[in-house]
Amino acid sequence: MIEITLDIDEIRRAQLIDLFMHCRCAPRDFASRLVGSYLQDRGTQVCLALENNAALGFCVLDIYSTHSTVDYIGVAESHKRRGIGCGLLDCALELSIENTVPFVQAGVGATNIKSRGLFEKKGFSISQDHGSWYMMVKQIKQ
Ligand SMILES: CC(C)(COP(=O)(O)OP(=O)(O)OC[C@H]1O[C@@H](n2cnc3c(N)ncnc32)[C@H](O)[C@@H]1OP(=O)(O)O)[C@@H](O)C(=O)NCCC(=O)NCCS
Asked: Is-contact 97 138, C-beta < 8 A?
């Protein structure tokens, strides 16, 4: 069963770094630094998807007083299209509701069909067309 957690201990932090490297094709020192800053920043939340204690996906949400931003969402190649992306985005939306922000936004590459499909499925729509990428927004009903 897939579990989505915000509770990231040292073991999960190491898994998150590996997952970040896998999803973003990033070198370890870059992944390690960025994950460290996500976990330190009080305005940033990381939702982690686990199955049998193995990390399979993550979503980084920046929460501001005016809105929240999905900074990144990624799922391990081997576990895509199993609803994990939806579960992670639900977690980010719940956090946004808890923090009473009026809207959630995400920048999505114009050719990223999978990501666009995911955000549309969760009620986001394109608010700005920047050519190579779209800003997608979902209003939060309080
Ligand atoms: C985008 C991503 C996070 C989706 O994760 P996922 O766990 O596979 O998504 P889900 O299984 O929850 O699918 C949710 C919806 O996304 C869309 N989607 C996912 N994969 C898709 C594909 N291969 N083709 C078209 N739509 C797709 C569909 O609308 C899908 O709903 P459906 O299954 O009812 O049709 C994943 O493909 C990924 O990690 N991509 C690489 C990283 C990335 O581009 N991140 C976005 C940057 S912000």
From this structure: no
Query: What span, in angstroms and rounded, lies between the C-alpha atoms of 10 and 13?
Result: 5
Asked whether the whole model's pTM tops 0.90, one would answer: yes
Residue in the structure block whose two tokens are 């998150």: 16
pLDDT higher than threshold 80 for residue 69: yes
| Res. 142: pLDDT tops 90 | no
pLDDT one-digit tens code per residue, 107-130: 999 999 999 999 999 999 999 999
Give residue 79 CA to ligand 1 midpoint distance, Å: 10
CB of 85 within 6 A of ligand 1: the answer is yes
Domains of the chain, earliest start first? 2-139 (3.40.630.30)
Residues 120 and 31: their CA atoms lie apart, in Å, by 28
Rg (CA), the chain: 14
CA 51–ligand 1 middle distance (angstroms):
18
| C-alpha 32 to ligand 1 mean position (Å) | 25
